Structure formats: C-alpha cells, structure tokens
Amino acid sequence: MFSDPISDFLTRIRNAMMAGHKFVEIPASNLKKDITKILYEQGYILNYKFEDDSIQGTIKIALKYDKQTKTPAIRKITRVSKPGLRKYASATELPRVLNGLGIAIVSTSHGVMTDKQARNENVGGEIICYVY
User: Fold this and answer.
1) Checking phi first, is residue 52 left (phi over 0); if not, alpha (psi -120 to 50) or beta?
2) pLDDT per residue over 29-80, tens digit each?
3) Tell me: the pLDDT tens digits for 16-29?
4) Spatial distance between the Cα atoms of 90 and 95, rounded to a whole number of angstroms
5) pTM for this predicted structure
6) How many CB atoms lie within 10 A of CB 94?
7) Whole-number Å distance between alpha carbons of 121 and 74
8) How many CB atoms neighbour CB 48 within 10 A?
C-alpha cells in the first residue's frame, strides 16, 4: 500500500528514464491518467496506453528521448504538493517553471491542467508537480 500514489507514479517515470527504459508500466487511477495525458500533450512522453482489467488497470507509457544524444525529454519531474503539506495557489500566484520553459501540473475545480491553462481560465488549485 502506498501513502502517496502520485509520488510513486512520478518516481517510476523518473527511474525508468534514468535507467534508459523505453516503456514503463504504472497502476492506473483517474488522476494519473489525467497527468499522463498532459505529459503527452506537452511533448514530454512519446505515447501512452490505458489498459483496463477487472481490478485496477495499468498505464503503459512510451518514454521520449533525444535521438542524437539519447537524453530523456524530461530533465526533472518533482512532486510539489505532498500528503503531509499541500500546496495551493490562486490563478495570480501560480508559479512559472523555468520562466515558462517547464510546466506545473495543477489540479483545479475545472480538472487537471497546466499552469498556463489555469492562468488562461483564471482558476487556481493544488500544484501537483513541476516538469521540465
């Protein structure tokens, strides 16, 4: 049993990229599926596939690397809001990751989105993680 499944999700991706794996399998949840979709839309992962079985299901993620240098597309992925200390921000206080080069994934009342989308919709929420 995990105390923080989102942190486990991010750690599995980070470890697979550091080890140079092409794919990683992660137990699924709706929040993890939303985060995976955002990572794909922003170009941090190559592809993903949701596989549902009778119990929980899994997410299969194809990781993205640079062709010449073999470096991963995700340089750093860190958890911000933790179960012991939640981090919330209003629309005006949302952080800019590397002056807009990275993204912050935010859980809002309008769903899970990037910090840029949240600023455009003028909604705040819980800052889940930073990706760059």
Assistant:
1) beta
2) 999 999 999 999 999 999 999 999 878 899 999 999 999 999 999 999 999 9
3) 999 999 999 999 99
4) 10
5) 0.94
6) 20
7) 26
8) 17
